[in-house]
Amino acid sequence: MKAHEVRVNSDRPWEIAFAPVFNVTVPFLDRHLNEGRSDFVVARWRDRDLRLDELARNVNRTANLLKRLGVKPGERVMLLLRDHPSFYYAFLGACRAGIVPIPVNYFLRAADYAYMLKDSQAKVVFVCKESMAEIEGALKAGDHAVTHRITSDEPSAGWKNLDELTASEPDSCPPAETTAETDCFWLYSSGSTGSPKASVHQHKDMVFTSQLYGIGIVKIKPGDVMFSPAKLFFAYGLGNSLSFPLWIGATTTMLEERPTPESALDALTRFKPSVYFGIPTLYAGQIAALERGHKADLSSLRFCVTGGEILPTPLLNKWRELTGLDIYDSIGSSEVLHFYTSNRPDAFRAGTAGQIVPGYEARVLNEAGEEVGAGEVGQLWIRGESTAKYYWNKPEKTAESMRDGWFGTGDMVSCDADGYFTFCGRGNDMLKVGGIWVSPSEMESALVSHPMVLEAAVIGAADDNGLIKPKAFVVPRNGKACGDAEAAELTNYLKTKLAPFKYPRWIRFVDELPKTASGKIQRFRLRDIP
Question: Which pTM was predicted?
Answer without folding.
Answer: 0.85
